[in-house]
Amino acid sequence: MNSSPTLTAISPTGLDFARVFAQVASPMVKTLLADLVGAGAVSEETYREALGQHRPGLQATYRRYFRDPDGAAMIFPTTPLPAAKIGEDDTVMLNGATVPTFGTFIRNLTPGSAAGLPGLSLPAGLTKTGLPVGIAIDGPEHRDQQVLAIGAAVETVLPRLPAPLM
Predict the structure, then answer these.
(1) Which of 62, 100, 124, 128 has a CA 20 to 30 Å removed from the CA of 109?
(2) Which residues fall within 8 angstroms of residue 21, CB to CB, at 6 or more apart?
(3) What residues are paired with 76 via a beta bridge?
(4) What local confidence, expressed as pLDDT, does residue 8 receive?
(5) d(CA 96, CA 140)
(6) CA–CA dist 18, 10 (Å, integer)
(7) pLDDT below 70 — which residues of the chain?
(8) What pLDDT digit, counting tens, does each position of 41-84 carry?
(9) For residue 71, what pLDDT is reported?
(10) Residue 21 class from Cβ within 10 Å (0-12 exposed, 13-18 middle, 19+ buried)?
(11) pTM for this predicted structure
(12) pLDDT of residue 87
């Protein structure tokens, strides 16, 4: 039995899922959002299992990482590839293979987010063809201010980017 939420509740912002969904322009993102409800949605049981069984192990791994080298933060590419052009974003080529864009682009950020770590992503430059690239910073649990301070320091050495073309 799938007991996933219908996502009809209105948030404190006054938005509800249907209104947000109606405004999504990307076909890929629209498909992904549609999968949040109905038969393809993650069941409550699966969600609870992930929270209770898998997330604690992930959090422990991060705690060990930050404890062992006395690390203040992890810095890594936001995505494994430059941004895909809008309209050419269903699949991308990665290491010679065609892969789904969304899963590929979120894979670097997903573990820290799932563990509940503070993190941020900064624009780091443009490719030769003008597509943006970024760097991400994740920090230890409850060190949000530290991550923001590191981000502010890193920003001072990153190039200023031009405004996006409309």
Answers:
(1) 128
(2) 30, 33, 34
(3) 136
(4) 53
(5) 35
(6) 10
(7) 1-11, 69, 165-166
(8) 888 898 899 899 999 999 999 999 998 767 789 999 999 998 88
(9) 78
(10) middle
(11) 0.76
(12) 76
Alpha-carbon distances of 108 from 39, 80, 114, 134, rounded to whole Å: 27, 7, 11, 11
Dmax (CA) of the chain: 52
> Any residues with CB less than 8 A from the CB of 71 and at least 6 apart, and which?
65, 140
Q: Quote the pLDDT of residue 42.
A: 82
- How many Å apart are CA 122 and CA 137, to the nearest integer? 8
164 Cβ neighbours under 8 A, 6+ residues apart: none
Residue written as token pair 């941020």: 120
Within the chain, residue ranges assigned H as helices are 17-23, 27-34, 44-49, 55-67, 101-106, 110-115, 144-155
Distance CA 42, CA 158 (A): 39
Radius of gyration of the chain (CA): 18
C-alpha dist (Å) from residue 1 to 35, 38, 42, 52, 139:
16, 11, 11, 20, 38
